[in-house]
């Protein structure tokens, strides 16, 4: 039996199973007094000698102390006292209490049952566990199971000693916390609803288990990494600092992202579901149901992370800082890798690559360092077990870190892996030409309107040509099939369509209908998206940025009103020449499908002619064309409204046959705008009358026609005035030029006469 070293002249005493140690510290933390006992002690100084042999565990309490006034000089237990510290200090309060585990049998048992350490190191020669001994109580049941089911390689003596030491620890914990833990667990199972006290809330926060946090009206799962109490130097002294992680896409890999949440103290009992973090067993909606739903979202995230994906979205958006940035309803391209490359910084549109990170879901507490994720199941490190050399099974978290969804398979424990995926994916918003984070639950498959091209009002020959050429680009995998290359590699693999004609004849609509027909995204750009400074450098960066996205997404790129950048070069306009050169080079190396629209094709630089594969001319609309457009808009209105909107025959007849509508000669865009305005008038009237069906009557369309007619008459009058003023200015300029010319002629004649006289005089002198 182990003995404690005794003082000279004393008999040796047995080493107790539990040794209580009290250390007295000065203001600087220096330990100048150590007292030991086999029973709990108060803070009264004892003059016990320091024991040399080790018990199974030692309960070490450190108390802070200050010196009383005066006091004889000297030393305390032969330790030099700190400057100004008398030999008999006065205890003030307990600074900390911890358990020092000396028993190698107990240390090995803990190493065999702790599957997620949470920062607790199981392979040290001396383990120190701070009160209230969370890691021991979290593994209470596992230790008891291990005690009765030790490895077969343990001999009888080793197994008996291990069982005894486990019982010693369990007995200590049961005496210290047993009744309090039982009272806390009764609160969890209360029929009035599960509650918890702040003092023992840590019982529900075992590292490696799942907690939920309410975020954007949904329950987001995380894995607990570690739990500690905040210190005096931190905000909210006494709060629980819960470090946790989930799986997000960062730096071209799916990996863990660490977060930290403070759970502030509260008095008495509090409903567990009202706390900032909720253990999985108490999550509203049912543990199994919520877990299955989150696993489904995680699988969806995994699939989306493998390649750019074309989707529709309806819901709230987040920016890169985790802030709400509005609602949207429209089409997007989910592209995790693209976000990692381009991000959403001011430099993105200038082609500069910036590192991108997922949005912060928990602003406030700092981001914590990653812990060491266990890759193998825990095992006993004793000599007998190591000698067996048995292979260790992978842990529940094996393979969770740094996964490439394009190359790797999901980890073996994919249910847990997908369970803790983030529900925010990075996406490019096609309508707004910017990046944002979207919730996977609000994404849906794109439902293209493949009949849109059929209803496009174009000449049959033009429609046939477009459909034949673009059909080669319709594919289900979202990749553009290149046409025959140029002699130079990577040149001439794209297809460029020029759509030219007057406004409102269907140029932009053609590109939109082709996108629907091919089931591809449409990246629609204006000159403002490319650049507002009109410098060749900024235009080149922005153009390369958007064309690169077009290639990544397999999108059709539409550059509306392209004549701004494609005007003919001039000898003295170096800035204009630089813009044209930038566009020529970009078009040469673009590998996708690009649509250029313009109503000023005569101003194009001649160099663009060889870059354009198909040029389609759109003629002015005839009355027959307008009639077809009206009919199609009426049919679409009734179809898309689900029968809530009705267009009677009288309204149709007025739109198609009335002289006033024909006199207006609406183009396609004006027809659409006129119908939208008429519907708005009809909706207001239906709301006032309290009827559900919105009837777009002739009077609504007549009101719109009257407003449009008045506006067009105003424009015509205004243009006439402007033209008259312009002609007057030209006449004035001509008169001024004539006057200047006559004055110049007179001056020249006078100079000639004067010059002749001088010359004659000179001759006479000669």
From TrEMBL:
Residues 69-92, 347-375, 722-766 are annotated as: Disordered. GO terms for molecular function: ATP binding; ATP hydrolysis activity. SUPFAM superfamilies: P-loop containing nucleoside triphosphate hydrolases. Residues 80-89 have a biased composition (Pro residues). Keywords: Hydrolase. It comes from Lasiosphaeria hispida. The lineage of its organism: Eukaryota, Fungi, Dikarya, Ascomycota, Pezizomycotina. Residues 493-622 form the AAA+ ATPase domain. This is P-loop containing nucleoside triphosphate hydrolase protein.
């Amino acid at each position: 039996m182990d003995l404690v070293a005794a003082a000279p002249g004393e008999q040796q005493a047995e080493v107790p199973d539990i040794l209580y140690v009290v250390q007295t510290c000065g203001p600087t933390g220096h330990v100048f007094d150590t007292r030991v006992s086999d029973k709990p002690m108060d803070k009264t100084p004892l003059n016990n000698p320091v024991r040399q042999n080790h018990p199974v565990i030692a309960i070490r309490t450190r108390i802070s102390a200050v010196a009383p006034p005066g006091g004889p000089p000297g030393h305390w237990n032969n330790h030099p006292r700190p400057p100004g510290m008398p030999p008999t200090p006065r205890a003030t309060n307990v600074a900390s209490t911890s358990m020092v585990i000396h028993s190698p049998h107990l240390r090995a048992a803990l190493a065999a049952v702790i599957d997620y350490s949470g920062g607790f190191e199981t392979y040290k020669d001396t383990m120190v566990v701070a009160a209230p001994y969370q890691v021991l109580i979290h593994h209470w049941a596992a230790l008891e199971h291990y005690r009765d089911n030790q490895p077969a390689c343990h001999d009888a003596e080793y197994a008996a000693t291990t069982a005894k030491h486990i019982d010693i620890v369990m007995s200590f914990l049961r005496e210290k916390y047993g009744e309090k833990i039982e009272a806390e667990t009764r609160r969890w199972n209360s029929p009035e609803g599960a509650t918890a006290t702040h003092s023992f809330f840590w019982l529900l926060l075992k590292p490696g288990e799942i907690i939920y946090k309410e975020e954007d009206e949904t329950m987001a799962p995380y894995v607990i990494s570690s739990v500690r109490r905040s210190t005096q130097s931190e905000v909210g002294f006494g709060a629980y600092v819960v470090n946790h992680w989930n799986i997000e896409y960062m730096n071209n890999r799916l990996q863990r992202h660490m977060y930290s949440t403070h759970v502030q103290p509260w008095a008495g009992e509090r409903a567990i579901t009202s706390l900032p973090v909720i253990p999985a067993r108490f999550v509203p909606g049912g543990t199994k149901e919520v877990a299955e739903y989150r696993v489904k979202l995680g699988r969806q995230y995994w699939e989306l992370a493998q390649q750019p994906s074309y989707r529709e979205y309806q819901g709230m958006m987040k920016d890169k800082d985790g802030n709400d940035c509005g609602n949207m309803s429209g089409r997007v391209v989910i592209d995790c890798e693209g976000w990692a490359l381009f991000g959403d910084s001011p430099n993105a549109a200038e082609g500069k690559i910036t590192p991108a990170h997922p949005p912060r879901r928990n602003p406030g507490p700092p981001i914590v360092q990653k812990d060491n994720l266990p890759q193998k199941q825990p095992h006993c490190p004793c000599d007998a077990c190591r000698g067996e050399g048995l292979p260790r099974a992978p842990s529940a978290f094996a393979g969770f870190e740094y996964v490439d969804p394009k190359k790797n398979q999901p980890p073996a424990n994919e249910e847990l892996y997908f369970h803790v995926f983030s529900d925010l994916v990075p996406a490019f918003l096609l309508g707004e030409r910017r990046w944002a984070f979207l919730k996977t639950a609000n994404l849906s498959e794109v439902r293209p309107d493949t009949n849109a091209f059929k209803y496009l009002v174009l000449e049959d020959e033009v429609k046939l040509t477009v459909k034949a050429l673009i059909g080669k680009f319709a594919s289900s995998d979202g990749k553009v099939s290149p046409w025959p290359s140029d002699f130079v590699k990577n040149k001439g693999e794209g297809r460029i369509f020029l759509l030219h004609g007057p406004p409102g004849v269907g140029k932009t609509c053609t590109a939109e209908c082709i996108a629907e027909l091919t089931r591809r995204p449409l990246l629609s750009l204006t000159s403002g998206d490319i650049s507002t400074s009109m410098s060749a450098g900024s235009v080149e960066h922005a153009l390369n940025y958007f064309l690169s996205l077009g290639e990544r997404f397999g999108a059709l790129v539409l550059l509306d009103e392209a004549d701004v950048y494609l005007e003919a070069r001039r000898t003295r306009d170096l800035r204009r020449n630089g813009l044209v050169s930038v566009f020529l080079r970009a078009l040469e190396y673009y590998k996708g499908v690009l649509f250029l629209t313009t109503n000023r094709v005569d101003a194009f630089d001649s160099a663009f002619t060889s870059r354009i594969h198909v040029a389609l001319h759109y003629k002015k609309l005839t009355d027959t064309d307008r009639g077809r457009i009206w009919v199609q808009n009426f049919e679409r209105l009734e179809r898309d409204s689900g029968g809530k909107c009705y267009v009677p025959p009288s309204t149709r007849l007025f739109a198609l046959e009335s002289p006033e509508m024909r006199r207006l000669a609406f183009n396609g865009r004006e027809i659409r705008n006129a119908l939208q305005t008429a519907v708005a008038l009809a909706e207001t009237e239906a709301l006032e009358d309290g009827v559900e069906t919105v009837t777009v009557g002739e009077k609504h369309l007549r009101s719109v026609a009257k407003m449009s007619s008045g506006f067009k008459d105003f424009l015509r009058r205004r243009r006439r005035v402007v033209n008259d003023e312009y002609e007057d200015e030209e006449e004035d300029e001509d008169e001024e030029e004539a006057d200047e010319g006559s004055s110049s002629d007179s001056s020249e004649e006078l100079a000639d006469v004067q010059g002749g006289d001088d010359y004659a005089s000179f001759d006479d002198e000669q």
